[in-house]
Queue: 2 jobs
Job 1
Amino acid sequence: MTEEMTGRDVLKHTLAQVYDEEGAALEREAAKAPQPKLSETFTERMEALIRSTEERERLEQLPPLQAWPSAGVVHPQMEELQPIRKTGWRRSKRAVRRLIVVAVLLAVMVPIGALGLHQSHAGFRLELEPDGRSYRVIYQTDNRGPSLKEFTTIKPKTPKGFHISNIFENDRDLIIEYIMDADSKKVIIFSQDYIGDNAQSMHIDAENDEEWYESIEGIRVFCSRKDDVLELFWVTENQSFDICANVDFTILRMLAEEVCERLIY
Amino acid sequence: MLEALLAKLNTEEDRSRFRVLYETYVRLMFHIANQYLPDPRDAEEAVSEAFFRISELFSEIGEIDCPKTRNLIVIITRNIAKDLLRKQKRQVPTVDLSLLRAEEGEELPLEELASDQGAGAAKLFDGMMVQDAMEVICGLPEKVRDTMYLCYAEDLDAEEIAALLGITKDAVYKRLQRGLVMLRERLGEDD
């Protein structure tokens, strides 16, 4: 290896040095500046963002189930999965996840009165955010759904030709990630969230190519498509459900039908 | 098996990365935002938007407390604060003559500028010393320099840069193109 730097090295090192010096100077100045006084709204918003990013990060970092020693035989595909995660696989999944946003970002809590929602029935409506790039999902509960203590998750059957690669569950959320056996870039992410007693707002991408509603087992389901990514979202009583995937719509509809059936019966 | 998996999910280490990032940089970010936006509410808006964008690409961030991450955060916050200021002043974007020259002149392969990891720009620096190169780089307009840094030093692709800076992919290519044109002018390359 020659010690002489190529033009690319010089460019890279120079840019890094310029920004390192500038960043260090700003950091020194910031340390001397008075501590910023943060508003309650800002702190709440940041807390929600931190929580949602932590959850997404955890999901991202999880190895596939087959990687766990207790899972017994190691799937041959597992060894190939890690390098794939770092490149195309992860990017493809990130595109899917970006659209789930429902499971990802619980934004500012909005009191029902402030929204002018006085009718008491389960449901949701979408409002376009001022930036025109995302929807705010406003839903309300009728307080007839299960309490948080009674909240039970619904784990749909794994679609044929898929396997569960990740699962996350706590007392108010369930996220299951399915990956197609034949193509690890084909991903389905199912999420179920407990939405509590208050109306809340969340963000859903509004830059979809197509949007429509379907009635599944009598439940109104919002469906959208952007490029090859489909998303189904619905609310019942005090739970919200989201299915986001880059696979055929019929598979997603079957998954939604099974969940809705189990909700009703 | 499920219990073991869930236990893994709930470790403190997994929980804390974004929080650490927030706590490490929130003060710096407010300091940067305040330089452009004296109203604390505007500064909060800029900083929260910056955190939102960072969260979108958080999986790409490795070490939290390191110059590379700090530089990324400085660039994002500064760009958002400047955009917000411009919106408040309702500034109409000025026509950039150097960019027009680039568009009128040689047809540069825009997408290759990002995809070839700066081969065109890098070639101009062959045989140069870092100290000499710094003078040239520092003379570039900030938004061009920021884009070049993200592309060539952080190795981000055009889509990622666009998401971080809140601009289109085309705008990323244009900025890189503009940077290349300016570098050629300053380094006196004829071709």
Note: Chain A touches chain B through 55 residues (CB under 8 Å).
Job 2
Amino acid sequence: MADTTQSGQAIDQKPHVLFADDDEVAQGLLRVVTQRQDTFDAQIARGGREALEMWRRARAEGRSFAVIVLDGAMPDITGYRVAEEIRKVDPDVQIIFWTGCDDPISEWRAHGVGAAEFLDKNIDAAGLVEAVTSHLEH
Amino acid sequence: MDDCKELALEVKQLSSRMAVMETRREEFVTHREMERALGEITREQTKVSSALDNLCGNFDSFREAHDKTLIERAQAEKEERFERMQMLREQHAAEMKEREDQSFINTLKRGSIYFGLVLTLLGILSALIGGILWLIQHNQAKP
């Protein structure tokens, strides 16, 4: 997948995907699942604030995330608030919520920020990767 | 006859003026009605705008309340996970200690068995040597 320049420096052409979850178990699962695939380059944030920082840093460096997967409930800042902040600047990014709180209000807020998917955390890891991959094509 | 004509003309003119007046009155009424309607619309607009402001305020506070609930929930879950991990760590440490103790006991047991075996072997060996010496002595003592 990686291309090379004339100077031999590698350019990674894979789309970038940002995952944000405060649960260490979920982070581990995401790490395992994303290492098994070669479709996208995954970065994992340990919370809402870290996700925002990573997203801002990527923008400052001229990179962008094609898909952002957010946990709805995080102890520092909620995924919905993160999505609202991102949406103010980037209306095109695909946002997927991967959350354990599947209440109607959460779903309504996800819809409000234009989320592409609202997935239950009980979905298997392969299902999550499949969902992310399908939204990379949009 | 001329008076009649003049009168007719005057009536005609008056009728025409009356018609103009009527049109103006209608226009005036329409204008008044429009003004009134405009006033009503403005008042309704103010009401709607105020309701919208309230709704936005409510929506913001509703969103904040939802965020607060989710954050509290996530914090509680994090604490629960931390406690569970702590418990697992303690359980693991206790198991390791128990295993170490058990291993020490097993070593002791094994050591005592070996020691017993060695003693038994030594005993048997001493008995054999004693027996042999006794036989030698017994044979030498014979004439």
Note: The two ends of chain A are 19 Å apart (CA to CA).
